[in-house]
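Quarterly update from the structural biology core.
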Amino acid sequence: MEQIVEAFLDPILELRASRNGANFARLLARETVDPDESHRGIIAEYLDPTARMFLAALQQALPAAAKSEVALAYQFLIGALLLILADTGRLARISDGAASGDDITSARNALVRYASAGLRTIASDRRRLPGSPPKQVLQRRSATA
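Predicted structure, tokenized:
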């Protein structure tokens, strides 16, 4: 699992760590979360093919996992990656300097461990979490929203 996650993360994190690539990585992070991105199609054209290959590799490595759970885990991974790419200094601020967004190696290693463990968990434990609402409650909530 770690090798799949590393293969996905390493190219963009190497770009973020480079002197010339840091601004491009931040721009990429911004484009990814921009509500108007779908109108421009940049992410769909340039990043979705890679995302689909990564999802296929994850699904192959986790055959017991539901496709929807693998896709959600991917979204969680992307969320964490975007925070690394867009480093605004918040990590250093909220950790009182114990961690820094500039330490790409530490962030990468922690994210590989974190994402790999999460992916393994979704494949092995598909039970409803204690305290989470039953599916019919969630469906009612979404119908009234």
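Residues 2-144 form a domain with the Tetracycline Repressor; domain 2 fold (CATH 1.10.357.10).
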